[in-house]
Amino acid sequence: MTIGRILIADDHPLIREGIQLSIRARHPGHVVDVAGSIAEAEALIQRNGAYKLLLLDYELPDANGFGGFFRLQHLLGRTPIAIISAHDSEQMVATTQAVGASGFLSKRQPLDATIAGIEIILGGGRVFPASAGPDTHIDMLRKRLDSLSGAQRRVLLALAGGDLNKQIAADLGVSEATIKAHLSAIFRKLGVTNRTQAILMMRPLLQPS
User: Fold this and answer.
1) Which residues contact 174 (CB under 8 A, 6 or more apart)?
2) With a threshold of 0.85, does the pTM exceed it?
3) If 163 and its partner were Cys, which of 97, 167, 170, 186 is the partner (CB 3.0–4.6 Å)?
């Protein structure tokens, strides 16, 4: 009997399989799906629906910084998401907290520590390094991002990825006029006047150093 599903999105097979096997051993009633990209993770979520937890590698090839996180967060709603990364600077961890993740698990730590963190998150807790603290600037950017509609957020993420209006319109299945209308609303809500300013404003949130 399947109790729930957990999704691991990581393109490093050894890390992905090690976590997958450990979770299966501790939670035999759970299905543990794996993906090697944001696109694969999106397809699994759209096919399977609800997940109890997403473990997300920050550095997936199509992630575009935290852009991939926001794409999957939009699909998963309240499902907890934990970032897994070897890029564990204080700014990275603080940004992970600010964007609403449930935890940050460093790839530099032993597998046992990672699994222990996963258990805490599955139990409804949050897991971050003790030295991490909130970043007020990142928190302000997150609030501005939250003011955007789902469609506007997708347009902004595509913009940050370097896509042109025509490409964005084709990807979303809408007209270029609709994209222009979304951009006008995005600029107004962010308090900027053009796409360059919008990208520069959101860069600390999408791609922390």
Assistant:
1) none
2) no
3) 167
State residue 115's pLDDT score.
94
Find the angle CA(142)-CA(113)-CA(80) to the nearest 5 degrees.
35
List the end-to-end C-alpha distance of the chain, in Å, as a whole number.
Answer: 43
* 166 exposure class (CB count in 10 Å sphere: 0-12, 13-18, 19+): exposed
Nearest to 89, CA basis, from 106, 111, 103? 106
The tens digit of pLDDT for each residue in 56-99 reads 999 898 888 888 898 898 889 889 999 999 888 888 888 888 78
Question: Helix 195-206 crosses helix 90-98 at what angle (to 10 degrees)?
Answer: 110
- The residues, ordered by sequence, that sit 6+ positions from 14 with a Cβ below 8 Å of its Cβ are none
Q: Are 152 and 180 in contact (CB under 8 A)?
A: no
Q: Quick one: which of 84, 114, 78 has its CA closest to 96?
A: 84
The residue written with tokens 């896509």 in the block is 163
What pLDDT is attached to residue 97? 84
Tokens linked to 185 = 């609303």
What is the residue whose two structure tokens read 């599903």? 5
Q: Quote the pLDDT of residue 50.
A: 87
Ramachandran bin of 65, using left for φ above 0, alpha for ψ from -120 to 50, beta for the remaining angles: left
